[in-house]
Amino acid sequence: MTDAERKVIRVRDVMKPQVDMVDGLTTVAEALRKMKHVETKCLIVDKRHEDDEYGIVLLADIARYVMAKDRAPERVNVYEIMSKPVIAVDPAMDIRYCARLFDKFGLSRAPVIDRGKIVGIVSYTDMVLKGLCAGIC
User: Fold this and answer.
1) Contacting residues for 98 by C-beta, under 8 A, at least 6 apart
2) Over the stretch 66-83, which tens digit does the pLDDT of each residue have?
3) Which of 24, 48, 73, 86 pairs as cysteine with 29 (C-beta 3.0–4.6 A)?
């Protein structure tokens, strides 16, 4: 199959539209309760104002910066361990390029931003199972 014959699968076709957002002042304990409730692997940290940027907290961040350092989750705020600014992707991006971006920057998931607003989240799992696998599985 040539590139011209191949159907382009875009990020919007595979992303999860449900995004769990928290304020940066939320404690890790509160964030964990929210993450467990919605069975998610990350939380997006909301902007504080229009000129701010979004952040992200992964379960791996909590393991690395709280659990491994024996810090009390009730005493650590999300802003202390988040990654900010977050690398985001456009909903119209081809998932092949999204996968390359993830590889280049060591990402496992990223928010999907359309006109400055978060509209979803995409992960390698979404791209493989809903994108690549859809054409061959």
Assistant:
1) 11, 89, 110, 122, 127
2) 999 999 999 999 999 999
3) 73
**Site of tokens 């809903």:** 130
d(CA 134, CA 1): 16
Q: CA-CA distance, 59 to 75, in Å (whole number)?
A: 17
Q: What is the β-pairing status of strands 42-45 and 21-22?
A: parallel
User: Quick check: bond before 91 cis, omega within 30?
Assistant: no
Q: What is the pTM of this model?
A: 0.86
What is the rounded distance in angstroms from the CA atom of residue 67 to the CA atom of residue 69? 5
Taken in order of first residue, the domains within the chain and their CATH numbers are 11-136 (3.10.580.10)
Q: Is it the case that residue 5 has pLDDT exceeding 80?
A: no
- Which residue type does 111 have? P
